[in-house]
Amino acid sequence: MNPFNFQDTVQLQLLANDLRQEVIRILCESKSGHSAGSLGMADVFAVLYFNVLSYNPKDPAWKDRDRLILSNGHICPIQYASMAYAGFFPKTELFTLRKLGSRLQGHPHTGSLPGIENNGGPLGQGLSQAVGISLVCKLENKSFRVYCITGDGEHNEGQIWEAIETAAKYKLHNLIVIVDRNRIQMDGPTEVVMPLDSLAEKYAAFGWNVLELDGHNIPGLLQGFEKAKLNKSAPLVIIANTIPGKDVAFMENSYDWHGKVPTVEQAQQALLLLENIHKKIADVKN
Amino acid sequence: MSEQSNGFLKKWNAAAMDLCPDPFRPSSFGSTRDGFGKGLLETAELHENIWVVSADVQESTRVHWFAEKFPNRFIQVGIAEQNLAGIAAGISSCNKIVFMSAFAAFSPGRNWDQIRVSICYQNSNVKIHSSHSGLTVGADGATHQALEDIGILRTLPNMTIVVPCDFEQAKKAVKLIALHSGPVYLRTVREKSPVFTSSKTPFEIGKFNVYKEGKDIAIFACGFTVYPALHAAFELEKEGIDCAVIDAHTIKPIDQDSILFWANTTKLLISIEDHQVTGGLGSAIAEVLAETKTNAILKRHGIYDLFGESGECEQLLKKYKLDYVGISEVVRTAWNSLKVKL
């Protein structure tokens, strides 16, 4: 059971906006990191941590918790922000990101921060770990689910496809993969660097169930995850079409912002943009 | 007991005396991969949280006995060593002890980053078993002769490296490493070799076994080279060269106390390994010696910055001087050259 179980679209939209603002602040403070993907996945993370995932922030090692494996570990700022808001650690600790002695390593380290399930960062590795956990879950008839977030550029790595094959072979219905389909990677647009389309057809050809969703449409995401939970036949992938840098206009859809952080001025500008959007969302509610 | 070996055996320490009735008439022949497979089966019967992951080499790496008996704890990932390592790490995160099994040329040969990040950095309870290591795979040639595996794993934090000397020790090692917390690399070979240790021979991770005392030279050997090293020591004794023989079965953590003891009681140390002379046992010993003042010098013997080649196992061991004749020659030459300097 999710400890928050937020159902209200506006509440989740406001929360995602708060998380985006947090990402901007902490990346500005850390002076290095990855902005675009972190912002692009804020809605998915809000939905996961505040509606979908079953966990207890006061008991991160609870054995029947859902596992969230972040394979593309470089977007960890959004995971750290979500975890702080969910009560895993104080929000003030977010500002230690990437600093000496911090539990918030530049790429997540499971031994440092309770609630982090895997060491992510070197791309392609997380999905194999998720498959390993799903195998135990299935063969021992456990009730939890395994969620694995991957990047689209990450699908350049051969290991991802090795893991996709294995999940299909063992019909891991408890495994739900979310692909951040933001169409950018370090050197440029994904379709220029190494074409990936049609990703949905590729997963389907490997024997997976596929859902393709708008990664910023909260009701759509809630419905998608509900549907994914009912899945009993094969592993399932949610291809979440997202806008990298979402809601910070000057960052949106630009691969330049994949591995870059805002200066103090840019951060102020970004926060203004995000606050305006926050007001608009709140106005709709009122 | 043969007449020939009687005098030799008197020089063995008490524990070693017990282990081997006659080193030149071994009780049987067996491979370390077989020892691993049998040990795994016995250990798995005691511990139901042991899982095994294989990369399309279940029979070759001797996990098929486990697979037949415990199909629900056995995962076959196919020819995918990177995935093998990641899946093993994932399973271990559910409080399991995982043995991942493949050929040394490919694991750790092509999944080093996965071993580094998903296994060592996570301190995952994954035991990496790799058979078909070294020159002894013979006819398959250089591509399949892993001679660098210890070197590439030895720099990884949290890693323990064990190279068993015979079937019996491999069997024993499995039981211990299953209970050892954290990543372990167990290096075995395909070829059968004399089984010269017994169920009574001591084995402790990180503590070398001394099979023969000696005052001139200390030979540190690991894996199947321990037996020919013993044989060589016996031959050299007839020539008046007195060698101690030490089974250096744990490369990491290295047994510093043993190395320094022999460095202070003999004049020459010799490392013998079926591995490049850089990165493996010889390097590990050199590192200990470099930081402490002793009178001994070290000769590293193994593969000298070369790739292997096709050939029958025995031919290769002869050519690369890893049989007892070759080892005798290497030791004799090093000793004579040292005497000239002295």
Q: How does this structure look, described?
A:
The complex is a heterodimer of chains A (286) and B (342). Chain A is α/β, with parallel strands linked by helices and 286 residues long. In chain A, 43% of the residues lie in helices and 12% in strands. Chain A has helices at residues 9-30, 36-40, 42-52, 76-86, 125-139, 158-169, 190-193, 199-205, 218-230, 264-285, and strands at 67-70, 146-151, 175-181, 184-185, 188-189, 209-214, 236-241. In chain A, the strands form two sheets. Chain A has a five-stranded parallel beta sheet, sandwiched between helices. In chain A, helix 1 packs across helix 3, helix 1 (9-30) packs across helix 4 and helix 3 (42-52) crosses helix 9 (218-230). The relative contact order of chain A is 0.17. Chain B is built from 13 helices and 14 strands. In chain B, strands 3-2-4-5-7-6-12 form a seven-stranded mixed beta sheet, sandwiched between helices. Chain B has a five-stranded mixed beta sheet with strand order 9-11-10-13-14, with helices on both faces. In chain B, strands 1-8 form a two-stranded antiparallel sheet. In chain B, helix 5 packs parallel to helix 6 (112-120) and helix 9 packs across helix 13 (324-341). The two termini of chain B are 38 Å apart. The relative contact order of chain B is 0.13. The A-B interface holds A 69, 109-111, 117-119, 121-122, 124-137, 139, 158-159, 162-163, 165-166, 170 and B 51, 53, 72-73, 75, 77-78, 80, 82-83, 85-94, 96, 113-114, 117-118, 121-123.
